[in-house]
Amino acid sequence: MNVDKYPLDINEYRTAGMESDRHLWAKAEFDRRRQHREDPEFDGEYRFEKKVADRVPDVHVLSPTVNRWIEFVDGSDQEYRAKTREALRLGFVIHWVFHINRGEQRAEARRALDEELRGPFTFGSFDEAGGMLDLGDPITYRNFDFAVESMDEFRVDEILGYRSGSAGIKTIDGVGFEIGVFDLGGYQCRLEVLGRDGELFRSVPVGEASEGTPWGFPSVDGIERLVEAGKVTRIGPVG
């Protein structure tokens, strides 16, 4: 790629880490399309290499409608599954976008995510030589099974960004926390926990207020049994 002929200075998108020119081009091209209202572009605030809780996406877009987390992949090691779950937990859909010459990484991501992805799904692609940028399909709660694997999912101290407040977990009367919407063996509800370690739970029907709902149902033991049986799924973000 001849960066001298590119309309933006790709080095403006460089961070302290080592990044290829191809990776920088992907970020710059995504921003150029925002400026010129060319697809793919979204309404909202674009943030490049800025923290979301304790992780740093290549780009995240904060929007009144859909928050997006975008990772451009060109050789660097990636935690595909952990990052996908973190993005969803924090209220983002996530796009994995691969350089066209990184077929081995695309295959690695597919292996890491395939068991939990539902239905037809296409990763994104980019190619600086051909000027191509396609974000592919976003991973969302609609096409990804977010199984709860341990009780840590209900302990706010274990959620990235809790201590700094960046995880956006809502507090309840200074002692409780909203930790998201879950499917508990077929029953869908919003769960709240009392205390940072989840000493007590209460379930609230989706869309209803929790006022007057008693603590203690479901029980901690009941939740733990469902988790051990693989019957608890997160279906909405924290907060």
Spell out the blueprint of helices and strands:
Elements: H1 21-36, E1 45-48, E2 59-62, E3 68-73, H2 80-89, E4 93-99, H3 103-113, E5 124-127, E6 132-134, E7 146-147, E8 171-172, E9 176-184, E10 187-194, E11 200-204, H4 220-228, E12 232-234
Parallel strand pairs: 3-4, 4-5
Antiparallel strand pairs: 1-2, 2-3, 5-6, 7-12, 8-9, 9-10, 9-12, 10-11
Oligomer: single chain
Q: How many strands in all?
A: 12
- Please report which band the strand proportion falls in: under 5%, 5-15%, 15-25%, 25-35%, 35-45% or over 45%: 15-25%
The chain-level structural class is: alpha+beta
Overall number of domains: 2
CATH architecture of the largest domain: 3-Layer(aba) Sandwich
Helix content: 10-25%
Distance between the termini: 44 Å
Question: What is the CATH first-level class name of the largest domain?
Answer: Alpha Beta
Order of helices and strands: HEEEHEHEEEEEEEHE
Overall outline: elongated
Provide the low-confidence segments as ranges.
162-166
Enumerate the strands of the largest sheet in spatial order, edge to edge or round the barrel: 1-2-3-4-5-6
* Overall average pLDDT: 91
Q: If you consult CATH, what is the topology of the largest domain?
A: Trna Endonuclease, Chain: A, domain 1
The profile of the biggest β sheet is: 6 strands, mixed
Total helical elements: 4
Our Rg estimate from Cα atoms comes to 20 Å
